[in-house]
Design goal:
By secondary structure, the chain is an alpha/beta fold. It contains 7 helices and 7 strands; from the N terminus they run ααβββααβαβαβαβ. It has one domain (3-64, 72-234): 3-Layer(aba) Sandwich (Rossmann fold), CATH 3.40.50. The chain has helices at residues 3-18, 54-57, 117-124, 126-129, 156-171, 186-197, 222-227; strands at 75-83, 86-94, 104-110, 135-139, 174-184, 204-208, 233-234.
Length: 241
Amino acid sequence: MDSPARCVALALVATLGWACSSVESTNHLKEDSLTNESSPPTNASTPTSGKLTSKTATTPPTPSAGCSKKDPIGGLRDRHLDVHGTERTYDLEIPSPYDATRSYPLVFAFHGGGGSSASARATFDFSSVARDSAIFVYPAAMDGNWDLDSPTDQNADIAFFDALVDSLSASHCVDTQRVFATGFSNGAYFANQLGCRRGDVLRAIAPHGGTFRHLTRLRGSPMIELNLLRQVFNLMVGGSR
């Protein structure tokens, strides 16, 4: 695995423990997170010398409805999900052993253009870095590329993401305040868009090899303009092998 992708993996593992884990209730906005690169907030919680801030350290997890369900079998699974009549596929990696009383972070990893769930797993290799610290989701694009152009209410990939969050939160014990997204190349562009379109769901994004270039396509929509104001912690990683 190339070093930038490993940096993403390591950074997200660190983020699982501290980054932006406290939430302000007003309008469901994450006031303590970092916003987009052009206007960082003044009240972002920043760790000092590797220590947690008191605000972050004292914020309890928010368990999903799935925390009352029977323990699923841990390990890697090839899964299918019906989204508005279309069968979508994804790989799901569940901690083993799995503890139904523990609220796990939910981490999405989106493959690059022409890739697959398997290529995303190989790129980020979370299983060897994060061990059993989170539930990892590797969705597959229908044609190998994520939709960066369709409006939110007509975007099948946004609907797929929404359905996965709802389904997994209902079937597994998820900390709904610690949902993360990363991606490579085309998947990084999509992770960036999710940070805008679903800033009320995601705690942080960590795009690898993809910038905010495609976000210009979102401007002009009142909903997207509002979402662009939502504050989502963003770690951008670039570089080569």
